[in-house]
């Protein structure tokens, strides 16, 4: 659907919220929704999706299964780890010394892989866990595909489904991460691990250090505990550039990943984000990282390369990118290693 150019001009002249909220039920029509999504992902790399169509029962079923696991004794949880890189992890993130104030489960979303891992996560009834995961993954994958199809339309791609097809392939390498942040022990100053943030009021401990997500699109949902912060795209990382994202358990927070930045030649931006440790209540968050198959070739879509906007990254495969990312620390600017010429 084509949006009349005067409607577009009117839309673009309105200031964009720091955290754009996008109503996925498209009250003003599909064309406008597509334009809103492109603008949010180009100017913020991030938006809050409401009326997204994922039934609350699907989310609460997964939360209950996850909380039942995290409530188990440490020795039982350790049997589902260590993360290599998938499985149960506590404090350690990746293999190069990054630490956070959390424990987590990191799963491949392919159903056979979920079933294998579920045997160590819910020893009493593995299918209880795997069914909750599979149902959740199906729902968030559908949401991610919808967002990507709309972005494809909004960007004027000849084949608007080319982005969503990358993540809906049967051999897609998508992951699900469930993070459990226990309440932090003290708010008096910097803690061990990734250290504290100077000058910030309240909690100063980092729950999960700053990074960009390597994949195509990330779809996050959390309970009612704050903690997520995003760095404004033009920010330089000073404290004033970090924006607190107020918790909303009924919404999904969606961000652009490195691959989507590369596929759109930098038009859509992969933003840096982090999680501050909570002081009073445990935070539970679940993130679906939508990724292509390992062999997928990532190169700028032709519509995004113009004389005014020449190719920014050299072509690479997801497998190649993954190898680079696992060799680096969490906060590394990996995409810089793939700059063209
Ligand atoms: C960041 C985004 C996802 O949580 C993740 C993380 C992954 C991991 O925990 O194994 C990485 C990190 C993330 C990027 C750099 C490497 C790999 C930890 C790390 C230090 C699951 C992902 O895909 O990349």
TrEMBL record:
Keywords: Dioxygenase, Iron, Metal-binding, Oxidoreductase. Its EC number is 1.14.11.13. It is an enzyme of class 1 (oxidoreductase). Its cofactor is L-ascorbate. Pfam families: 2OG-FeII_Oxy, DIOX_N. Residues 181-202 are annotated as: Disordered. It catalyses: gibberellin A1 + 2-oxoglutarate + O2 = gibberellin A8 + succinate + CO2. Residues 192-201 have a biased composition (Gly residues). Residues 171-292 form the Fe2OG dioxygenase domain. InterPro entries: DIOX_N, IPNS-like_FE2OG_OXY, IPNS-like_sf, Iron_ascorbate_oxido_reductase, Oxoglu/Fe-dep_dioxygenase_dom. GO terms for biological process: gibberellin metabolic process. The keyword Oxidoreductase applies. It comes from the Eukaryota. The keyword Phosphoprotein does not apply. One of its GO terms (molecular function) is gibberellin 2-beta-dioxygenase activity. Belongs to the iron/ascorbate-dependent oxidoreductase family. GA2OX subfamily. This is gibberellin 2beta-dioxygenase. It comes from Eleusine coracana subsp. coracana.
